[in-house]
Amino acid sequence: PQNRAGPCHVSLLSPQVLAYNRHTFATVSQRLLISVTPAPGGDAPFQAEFLVGNRNVEELLPEAARELFLQASAGVWERGDLHVINVTSALDRGGRVPLPIEGRREGVYVQVGSHSPFSPCLASAVSPQSRSRCHRGQRPLASCYDTFAPHFSIRWCNLTLLQVWPSPTTPGPGWGPGVLEEGGDFEPPTEVVPRELLPAFLVTLLVPLAVAALLCLLLGHLMCCRREGV
Description:
By secondary structure, the chain is α+β, with helices and mostly antiparallel strands. It is built from 4 helices and 9 strands; from the N terminus they run ββββββαββααβα.
């Protein structure tokens, strides 16, 4: 992709997207022009990743579907400043291709971010007690199962909560005026002692030649002096 940064910190990306039809296996390519602007309040420090089991990735790419998912997430998060960060197919995370029966779906990982802390429901869903229940095949400890129903089937045992804090930027080196201060003396680097490279050259050259000569003598002795009747 081509990245061009403007004066307002707006990046223009021009990726080429290659898609295929899963039924006819026909392919089509298209180049998109995407303008990327930083979020007004910066990156969301609180991020949650949900696994939606009854959807494919292309079903959550339209804006209407993502808005519906954000509305359901707002009921769980108990906040309204949510936005979708990433949408990834479960097949890209090691999921299996579903059988073409009963309208099964691949599953989608949806990452949602907010500047507000996690709700008690989300915190309880990832608690050690809840993870222990998941390992035993039981439902996790959460009181917000019905918030996403009936549109989205969330697999709460795969819920992941992240807290992303901006890393402190280290200041770069300070550039001086490039002029030697008055009264300072320039001290050139010390001279390097010359090295004697002849012994190393002779060892590198003569040792392989001596080994090759010995091998030739040994081979000639075996071929000429060890023949039958000699």
